[in-house]
Amino acid sequence: MPKAEIKNFNTPDEQQEVDKASVATLNMSGGPVERSTLKSGWRWSEHIKPMAGTELCEVNHFGYIVSGQLGIRLVDGTELVARAGDVIAVPAGHDAWVIGDEPVVAIDWGAAANFGK
Fold it and tell me: Which domains does the chain have, with CATH numbers?
C-alpha cells in the first residue's frame, strides 16, 4: 500500500548552487520534484552549458512557473515566454533565460534528477 508523504522545500533532500541559480530537490516516492530559483541575468547557455557539455538543454521539463518570466528558445527557433501561473511542457533541445529583474521560481516534475547534466 502506498504511504502518504509530506516534504518541504525549506528542508530539501538535495540542494545545488551554481552561478545565478539554486535548485532544491525533494525525493518523493512518486519521483523527484525540484524548485529552481533563477536570478536576473541567468541563461542556460551561459551558466549551465559548460557543465552539461551539450549545445542545448537536453532535458524535458514539465512544471509550473511560480514567479518571474522565463524566455525559452526551442531547437527549431520557436520562442516562448513562460510567466507566473503558467504550466510548461518543454521538450529537450532548448535554451532558456530570465527576462527582467524578477527571479524565476519554478517547480519541475520532469527534470529533477538532471540539473546540470
Answer: 16-114 (2.60.120.10)
- Residue among 63, 31, 42 at smallest CA distance from 116: 42
Q: What amino acid occupies position 59?
A: V
Judged by DSSP in three states, 37 sits in strand
Tally of CB atoms within 10 A around 22: 16
Reported as a single tens digit per residue, the pLDDT across 82-117 is 999 999 999 999 999 999 999 999 999 976 544 444
DSSP 43: B
Please give the Cα distance from 61 to 74 (Å, whole number).
12
pTM of the model: 0.90
Phi/psi class of residue 77: alpha, beta or left (left: φ > 0; alpha: ψ in -120 to 50)?
left
**DSSP 8-class letter at 2:** -
- Assigned C-alpha cell, 19: 552561478
Nearest to 25 by CA among 42, 9, 48: 9
Euclidean distance between CA atoms 59 and 97, whole angstroms: 15
